[in-house]
């Protein structure tokens, strides 16, 4: 593995279409983001999307609501011949404030960890076509 870890990031606003339990987004929404991060990691590492094999651990810590802004990060933490183990986190950086007004929101002084996971992706050797791509500075 490179000296510098391979990382991927996403930043997005949770849309009203993502509400599943009244005003709360389903955990599957965050899992989809983690899956997208895993795909980017394997593209950066191997030049191939790979296949998500399993999650060893998933934790949902704080509800996510439409209007919230999330910053999600993932890093490859271990590599095998074909497997890549990654850790992912989702942080809330802006929070809706329906208690104040329908359109109110606060930029959080400190981001709040809403979910984290550890998973494994697999890229068959025949599809590993290039060396790791460095992250942008």
Written overview of the protein:
There is one protein chain. With 137 residues, this protein is mainly beta. The protein has a single domain (17-127), classed as Hotdog Thioesterase (Thiol Ester Dehydrase, Chain A, Roll). The protein has one helix and seven strands; from the N terminus they run E-E-E-H-E-E-E-E. It has one helix spanning 27-46; strands at 7-13, 19-21, 24-25, 51-60, 69-79, 83-96, 105-122. The strands form two sheets. A five-stranded antiparallel beta sheet has the order 1-5-6-7-4, covered by helices on one side. Strand 5 and strand 6 form a beta hairpin. The chain is elongated. The two termini are 19 Å apart.
Question: How would you summarize the topology of this molecule?
Answer:
Blueprint: E1 7-13, E2 19-21, E3 24-25, H1 27-46, E4 51-60, E5 69-79, E6 83-96, E7 105-122
Antiparallel strand pairs: 1-5, 2-3, 4-7, 5-6, 6-7
Quick structural overview:
With about 140 residues, the protein is mainly β.
The total count of strands amounts to 7
Apparent shape: elongated
Strand content: over 45%
Strand order of the largest sheet: 1-5-6-7-4
- Provide the CATH architecture: Roll
Low-confidence stretches: none
Number of helices: 1
**What is the CATH superfamily?**
Hotdog Thioesterase
Terminal Cα separation, in Å? 19 Å
Radius of gyration using CA atoms only = 16 Å
Order of helices and strands: EEEHEEEE
């Amino acid at each position: 593995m490179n000296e510098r870890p391979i990382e991927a990031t996403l930043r997005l606003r949770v849309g009203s279409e993502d509400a599943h339990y009244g005003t709360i987004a389903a955990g599957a929404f965050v899992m989809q983001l983690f899956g997208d991060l895993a795909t980017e990691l394997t593209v950066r590492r191997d030049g191939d999307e790979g296949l998500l094999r399993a999650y060893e651990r998933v934790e949902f810590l704080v509800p996510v609501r439409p209007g919230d802004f999330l910053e999600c990060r993932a890093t490859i933490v271990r590599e095998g011949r074909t497997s890549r183990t990654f850790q992912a986190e989702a942080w809330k950086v802006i929070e809706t404030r329906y208690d104040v007004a329908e359109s109110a929101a606060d930029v959080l002084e400190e981001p709040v960890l809403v979910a984290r996971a550890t998973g494994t992706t697999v890229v068959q050797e025949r599809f590993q076509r290039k060396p790791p791509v460095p992250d942008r500075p």
